[in-house]
From TrEMBL:
UniProt-annotated location(s): Mitochondrion membrane
Protein name per UniProt: NADH-ubiquinone oxidoreductase chain 4
Molecular function per GO: NADH dehydrogenase (ubiquinone) activity; NADH dehydrogenase activity; ubiquinone binding
Annotated function: Core subunit of the mitochondrial membrane respiratory chain NADH dehydrogenase (Complex I) that is believed to belong to the minimal assembly required for catalysis. Complex I functions in the transfer of electrons from NADH to the respiratory chain. The immediate electron acceptor for the enzyme is believed to be ubiquinone.
GO CC terms, sorted: mitochondrial membrane
Lineage: Eukaryota, Metazoa, Ecdysozoa, Arthropoda, Crustacea
Protein family according to the UniProt entry: Belongs to the complex I subunit 4 family.
Amino acid sequence: MLKFILMVLLMTLVVDSWITVQVSLFLASFMFGVYSLNGFSFSCLGLGFGMDYIAYILILLSFWIMALVVGSSQKIENFKDFDKMFLLVNVFLLLSLVLTFSCLDYLMFYICFESSLIPTMILILGWGYQPERLQAGVYMLFYTLFGSLPLLISILSLYSTGGSVTFGLSFVPNCSVSLFGVWYVCSVMAFIVKLPVYLVHLWLPKAHVEAPVAGSMILAGVLLKLGGYGLVRVCPLFIHSAVDFSWLWVSVGLLGGIFVSFMCLRQTDIKALIAYSSVAHMGLVLCGLSVFSWWGLSGAVSVMVGHGLCSSGLFCLANMVYERLGSRSLFISKGLLSFMPTMGLWWFLLSAGNMAAPPTVNLLGEISLILSVVSWVVLTMLPVALLSFLSAAYSLYMFSLSQHGKYFSALFSCCSGKVREYLVLMLHWLPLNILVLKGSIFIY
């Protein structure tokens, strides 16, 4: 693990060359993928660092998405406008993500978890499109800090009472049921906000709408997965309270996902629609992690990976439309099939992936999640069915409204797509469909 962290640090020395950083990221992805063939255990990767299969999958996803982020942000490189600073911020964001997924103690995990907020804020404030990006950054900062400060107090209390904050060695001492429940809520609230769950999700659409394409892709691709990964690590400490609170999180996840899906059906901004769909998907992930079953855990990891690839690709597509039309409105950008016909295929493929159509990883994950939630309580069958239906509904709504209809604009022709753009979209779509052949890697 240390060799990969050193490799990321060395990338800071070559930020003068855009292509060198991009090739290095793809090379790191390939090397990290081959690295698993030799096998590894949880703690054989260096002092204080280690990983299991969940951490391995998410680190590999981080390398892959970051390489695609650099490939899709060519406009910044063309204008030579702080392009070195842009690459430096992205490399430090990647470093914080890799450290977060490979930490072996809760305090270091908290520090790296929160450190990813700083490069993300710089991306939104430095390369955002609209004047409202300052408000979006403040929303993101305060929502995250509101949830994370109780987590810090919880970790310090864990050390003072248990004597250790190492994964697998920490334990929560016996205390009253009410105090145990409050301790549990304080510990998971940071990850609930980061996931994000309905009711604490307002920072996400604002951050996505105001962020550049790099910020949106890395936010949807990896940063939302920090919440799910944190729940996997923290919930076993409070297993009794977590089981007692399962009904709450399953209810919030399912009903919140349904409410957000209805909100998606009335969105006119493409990026806002994709951002709200992320909230609906993460609600189902929360349900799978809350029922404490192998089906739920493997399904949650599958959906996190599939959503990371699919949602990142959709944000990349939305940015390609925005660069040509100067608008993200679905009413202005309708009829794109006659305007950019070769892009229509990618809109269809990624919209199908967003609704968990076969043969994507999303389908594999949603089947596992549906089985885990319905086997927990049969009454959840109706909201789960409604959530799946609405997921298909807003994906079809986005595709049909953007691709069909009569195109109204003063712009009559433009480039339908470049080889670089098709390559980035292909590298989103291929892993999304090929990983289903190796579904066993999502079983923890």
